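Thread: Newbie trying to understand structure tokens

Hi all, I'm a second-year student working on a class project, and my supervisor (Dr. K.) asked me to get a predicted structure for one chain before our next meeting. I've only ever worked with sequences, so writing a 3D structure as a token string is new to me. If someone could post the tokens and maybe explain what I'm looking at, I'd be very grateful. Here's the chain:
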Amino acid sequence: MSDIRLICLDMDGTLLDDDHATVPPRNVAALRAAAERGAAVTIASGRAWSLLRAVDAQIGVTRYAVLSNGAAVLDVATGEWIYRRPMDPAARRTILTLLLDWGLPFEVYCEGENYIQADRTEQVVGSALSPEFAQVLRSVSHFPEDLNAALEGKAVEKIHIFHVPPECRQELLDAVEACGPLAVTTSFGENMELTAPGVNKGSAVQALCEKLGLEPDQVMAFGDAGNDLELLAWAGWSFAMANASAEARATARYLTGTNREGGVGMAVEQYLLNA
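---
Reply by user tm_fold:
Sure, no problem. This is what the structure looks like when written as tokens:
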């Protein structure tokens, strides 16, 4: 019988339905039942915490949150930051100036909050993955007139570029990497996600497990994309969604159903609740 003590959940394409906002009922029921059995339900997302509060309210039993692709880990029950790996401030300033000059749609995750340059609001919100998520962006984000100035003295976790045209992706990658060491990944389509070097969901969950005294074979993890690979490789019970990328399916130890049909709930039922 498995001794699963931590369940780590990617959001888009994994836990959430295709509206990028709703948790299917099967997932909610399975996660609540798992929590009753002592498993710590853990969000493991590329998003900032402010963009996840509505999801947390639906789950109802979230214990920890791995945020910004692993740049920070939050104890949801206490509000304590367990782990943080912020970006270098000088690199962040240069990259944001570069992105503003290029005219690309982007947002910045900082200390659990989301920031969007005020004069780029419509461009960024218009790049959201769904109308439902666009509403989330409008309702919870900060919109400073001068983004770099607003972030001074703060711990910036991640810069998320919604869309990088394929024809200029390598040029942008070369430009941002010239600003200093970075971790670069993607989670959907033509997006690009920038964090401090060494940041990924796997290393953040490993740090959390060291604090909790847990081994990889006590961790169940779900994902579908490039920013989930390190976590899927590390966790003893790793599941790729049926709709996952080929790379995620090759990395995970198991395969489950699609995000639309509650694939997370299916696996939790089979391998934890009914094991």
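A couple of things are worth pointing out once you decode it. Residues 124 and 172 are 18 Å apart (CA to CA). The mean pLDDT is 95. Feel free to ask follow-ups in this thread.
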